[in-house]
Design a protein that fits this description.
Elements: E1 2-4, E2 13-15, E3 18-24, E4 31-38, H1 49-57, E5 72-77, E6 82-86, E7 89-96, H2 105-112, E8 128-132, E9 140-146, E10 164-168, E11 171-178, H3 184-200, E12 204-205, E13 209-213, E14 227-235
Antiparallel strand pairs: 1-2, 3-4, 5-6, 6-11, 7-9, 7-10, 8-9, 8-13, 11-14, 12-14, 13-14
């Protein structure tokens, strides 16, 4: 269940996954009881302070630009991370120098702003991804997502060899959201926390991770920034 909390100016989204147990009166065939069990808490009593705190944590402000993002479905939300199913999407990418760096961003941004074979301008999207096959390595790629309406075959060619177009097949990813300036040290720590939580919960993560940055760091207050660490999963089942 996803709902917007309209009483606050920034209208935060409240996300709940879990199991609903409905009791049925065998004589009337009508529902007579309803219990919800959230994935994000352990105490699912009628008035749970843990549940209240879980709601309160979701009310924090994240400033996310009103731009297109890759499509995904939230399969599960725990107290520490989300499991999402991503649809395929296309990225324009080039090499970067570190997870938290901006090296290469101007090159991929130049592609969508018209520095391509047909001088076509392509709408900006969010987030900006930085992908590392090994979180300790300095070899990363920085990526901007192409709008979903664009077909791979219709996209103009990059003007530079160092820029590449690639289709991401999508899949299941675990995601940890956080605010503040995403330094390399912080990103690595968030990746370690997420990976450790997944292994503890019996979920198999793949190697590497992605950093997703949803904001312009020069125009967004640090405490309202929306950042995410994503790890693709080898497999996942809701059972």
């Amino acid at each position: 269940m996803v709902m917007k909390f309209m009483l606050l100016p920034w209208k935060p989204e409240l996300i709940f996954t879990g199991t609903s147990v409905m009791g049925i009166n065998p004589e009337t065939g009508k529902f007579c009881s309803h219990l919800d069990f959230w994935d994000s808490i352990k105490n699912n009593e009628y008035f749970s302070l843990e549940g209240l705190w879980d709601v309160f944590k979701q009310l924090r402000i994240y400033k996310t630009p009103d731009l297109e993002t890759p499509k995904y479905q939230i399969l599960k939300r725990t107290g520490g991370y989300e499991i999402r199913k991503y649809a395929p999407f296309i990225v324009v990418e080039t090499r970067g120098n570190k997870l938290s760096g901006s090296t290469g961003f101007n090159d991929v941004a130049g592609y969508i702003f018209g520095k391509n074979s047909t001088m076509e301008k392509i709408p900006m999207t969010t987030p900006v991804f930085t992908e590392a096959n090994d979180v300790e390595s300095s070899e990363v790629s920085i990526q901007i997502v192409i709008p979903l309406e664009k077909e791979f075959s219709s996209l103009p060619d990059p003007n530079e060899e160092k820029i590449n177009l690639r289709k991401v097949e999508g899949g299941i990813a675990a995601v940890l959201k956080f605010s503040g300036k995403p330094t390399d040290e912080i990103v690595r720590e968030k990746e370690r926390v997420l990976r450790s939580s997944l292994i503890k919960d019996g979920i198999k993560p793949t190697m590497g991770c992605l950093l997703a940055r949803y904001n312009d760091p020069g125009r967004t207050w640090s405490f309202t920034m929306r950042n995410e660490v994503l790890i693709w999963l080898e497999e996942f089942s809701l059972e």
